[in-house]
Known about the structure:
371 residues; alpha/beta; Rossmann fold; four-stranded parallel beta sheet; 13 strands; globular; Peripla_BP_I; signal; Bact_Solute-Bind_Prot2
Amino acid sequence: MKKTLKALTFGLVAIMLMFVLAACNSESSGKGGAVSVGIVLPTKDEPRWVQDEERFKAALDGSDYTTEILFSQGSSAKEKENVETLISKGIDVLIIAPHDGAAAGASVEAAKEEGITVIAYDRLITDTEAVDYYVTFDSVAVGEAQGQYLIDNAEGTGVPLYLYAGASSDNNAFLFFEGAWKVLQPKIADGTFVIANSSEAEALKDKSELTRDEMGAILGQVTTNWDPSEAKNKAETHLTAVSEDMKGDVAILAPNDGTARAIADVFGSDPAISNYVVTGQDAEKASIQYILDGKQTMTVFKDVRTLVSDAMGMAIDILEDKTPETTGSYDNGATDVKAKQTDVIVVNKENVQSELIDSGYYEASEFTGLE
């Protein structure tokens, strides 16, 4: 009888230990678990996001917090899977640069249901209340800088203007275009520029403020989807379709550096193009070399070191139960999202050295033709 009781006692103890261990394991994989901050970035196929990955990792060096970074590779389904993976690892904060701002809503809503604080990074997540903060460059100011550069470098009147934009699924593409249109439209209306490649934009040339649907109609004609190959194909199609009076000295609104280089290669190889001014964005190494070589005119430098620092600083504030600093807000269609904004800088051949080399962003040895 005693042996039976002893066996029952050991059995009960073993069962209790199993429950205790299960509870501990559940607690360690839940809030306060192994991963403090989960980060989801849109793709590894653009240098910008690979650079961000390294800087995010470095931002937590020496701290008590940990991070895991996953890439969605241009797929909203993969993005949702990534968020679910990070939720299962017990993250307290989710930083996400969405592939598709509207489609990401379902992913962040799942995170919010678990009590996770959501920070939209660089791209706004739209049509959901499940976004706590937004860390961004002033996207409208990016477009304004691009448009103003084209104006400052335009000579005479009737300058053919080629418009290109980012992906319609990216809210930033609308903000960039909004900023560019704001400054370019008066110069289109007065005849300084003549729109060469968008009938939708031509029809709206006398309208200073466009609705979202009107911008969407223009973007539908000139989107590159952030894809250099698509940008190249569109540029080739446009140059084939236009008459000779839409060539000569031209102005090109290109949304970012990858598309700018592709578009510049097409325009630069057309013998009927005597000169072109083309904008860019992100200060990618390849585009800085293009600028030094005279093949790209400018880029809008968005110092991702500052943006990463702002995002991770905000995450640490949240982990330490502090209220993050914000500088404004953005209407995402469902709520006003508190935002921390970072300034942008125009870079051309004249200030590559001071803005990018002297600041330590790049090394001089990475380029040729620096003065």
